[in-house]
Amino acid sequence: MMKKICDFISRWMGAxxxxxxxxxxxxxxxxxxxxxxxxxxMLGLIMFGMGLTLNPxxxxxxxxxxxxxxxxxxxxxxxxxxLAWCLTKAFALPPDLALGVILVGCCxxxxxxxxxxxxxxxxxxxxxxxxxxxxVLAPLLTPSLTWLMAxxxxxxxxxxxxxxxxxxxxxxxxGGFLIQHFLPHFTKRAVAYLPAFSxxxxxxxxxxxxxxxASKLLTGGTIVVLVVILHNLCGLGTGYCLxxxxxxxxxxxxxxxxxxxxxxxxxxxxxxxxxxxxxxMAAIPxxxxxxxxxxxxxxxxxxxxxxx
Length: 308
Description:
Mean pLDDT: 84
Number of strands: 0
Order of helices and strands: HHHHHHHHHHHHHHHHH
Distance between the termini: 32 Å
Radius of gyration: 18 Å
């Protein structure tokens, strides 16, 4: 029964995120009462869960199929940051919202991308390899790209961001990886429940962020919702087109598309909350992206799986 409940939660993660986000928007008080300090521990737990599922063979793809991983990671850290910058200029977003969109664009691939790639019948090994590689590269590339794109209108603490990513992302992943290596029996039992656990954590994280920013979303959220949706859809489309132009298989195109389009928006929100408290609206794009990309991911997985 517990396994069926967990499977149900994992399958309907997008709907769960959407329902909790709408609830937090309409009745923000219970969610806003939870302090923003919980964002980092919750994100760390999600990353810890990712570490539990990692295996040395997940990184072996970097050496056995370096071309595929290189294409995917280059696309990850060029397409989404450039799209973010272009959209902020095209829609003339104010500095705090522009910063939030750029932060989302400069983050590594999201943990949900592996689930979506699996549902899309894409190249799951490539997806996992890209997520792992982009996450390892994130402490260097995310602060550097944010500084490059946003430092003209905000003060970006690249070193502080690097340390935050190490503490919130890299350390928990290493911890999970070590437990998976030294306590394999515990890990084997826990892994079956991890997708549902991660789904609940992501949905709760989104609800807390939306609850804290409900009034701002209701008064000025229309334009940024449009920008976030365009950012995600353009990332998904450009990632797939890149694979098509390079004559990759449909499975590889699907993996690159999903990996590029689905960002670790929870990390973007966390960085905005910690390092850009003087720009309170900077956390909004990450919160919206967290809701939307789970919906679009589920839809695109259906389309890709039908064209296998």
